[in-house]
Amino acid sequence: MATYLSNPLFSRATVEAESELEAASKLVERAFNRIQKSDSKRNRVQQAIKDTRAGKAQEMETHLQWLMQEKARLEQELNSVDKQLEDKRMRLTERAA
Length: 97
Prior knowledge:
Oligomer: single chain
Number of strands: 0
Structural class: mainly alpha
């Protein structure tokens, strides 16, 4: 058995196997790192999309509130103008009578 372990072919085969194993291990490590980077990028993109949607929703809500305030202001202004016109119409009717 000692001759088998000291056999140069066996030693060479062992070194080659270890070398191939090391190379395969490095390939697996690189693949794992690529997957992690890909996952990290995906997570960042998903978070950016989520943040953008939330920002847009908030922007739309703010704009909607502004529109509603403008509508209320314009309705008040219109009511005021209607009242002024009604008052003028009544005065004209009184003068004509």
